[in-house]
Design brief:
This protein is an alpha+beta fold. The protein has three helices and four strands.
C-alpha cells in the first residue's frame, strides 16, 4: 500500500463530531494500525459546511466524507488529496474574484 502521508487528524468539531467522525476514525485506525500512520482527533478544522473532514499531515483538508468515501480515500489517497487541492484552488479563485470586483466593499 502506497501511503503518501504520516498523520491523519479526524475533525470532531460541532458539525463533524455528531455526524460520524467517530466511525471514520475507527475505520482509519483499523486500516492503518500496522502502517505507522498516526490517527488523531482535532477540534473544528473550519470546514463545517462540508462535514465530515480529515486533515492530512496538518496541511490538507479532505471533506465530505462518509463511510463509503473514506474507503475510497484509503484505496486511492492521492486522488482524494488532489481533488481537495483542486477544490481549494477553485475556492481561492472565487474569493480573489469577489475581492477584486467593483461590487465588493467593506462596511
Amino acid at each position: 500500500m502506497n501511503i503518501p502521508f504520516k498523520k491523519i487528524a479526524v475533525c470532531h468539531g460541532p458539525t463533524c463530531g455528531p455526524n460520524g467522525a467517530k466511525k471514520l476514525k475507527q475505520i482509519l485506525e483499523e486500516t492503518y494500525a500496522d502502517n505507522g500512520i498516526e490517527i488523531t482527533t482535532r477540534e473544528c478544522c473550519g470546514k463545517c459546511s462540508n462535514h465530515n473532514s480529515i486533515v492530512v499531515d496538518d496541511t490538507m483538508t479532505v471533506s465530505n466524507l462518509d463511510e463509503e468515501s473514506i474507503k475510497k480515500f484509503i484505496a486511492d489517497p492521492d486522488a482524494m488529496i488532489e481533488g481537495a487541492k483542486k477544490e481549494e484552488g477553485e475556492l481561492s479563485k472565487k474569493i480573489d474574484e469577489l475581492l477584486s470586483s467593483e461590487d465588493f466593499t467593506l462596511s
